[in-house]
Amino acid sequence: QVQLVESGGGLVQSGASLNISCTFSAGTITNYAMAWFRQAPGKEREFVAVISQNNDTTFYGDSMSDRFTISRDKAKNAVYLQMNSLQPGETDVYYCAARGQMAGLKESAYDYWGQGTKVTVYS
Hints:
Elements: E1 3-7, E2 10-13, E3 18-25, E4 33-39, E5 46-51, E6 58-60, E7 68-73, E8 78-83, E9 92-99, E10 112-113, E11 117-122
Parallel strand pairs: 2-11
Antiparallel strand pairs: 1-3, 3-8, 4-5, 4-9, 5-6, 7-8, 9-10, 9-11
């Protein structure tokens, strides 16, 4: 059973940086494309970034590639999202997702999900 566990969320001031993590169990992380989504209360889940199985392809949501970086550590079976210059409007729950082949922006394309980690940005 594939399990994803996010961590690293918290309370940060506007303009700050934060690196959140997702650990992957019951499998080899390099067999999966890994993605991050985020969701604010009352809103639909929004695509943030995805990284391919062999790390050679990354893709970001609109206006995120200049501040966010997705990466993977095979040895730690983990994927990360480095977020810079966070804004209050980015107060969301951030979710990690996995799929057995490269996927894109659609939430429905992903097979496995974590429980999310809360990021709160205050001004």
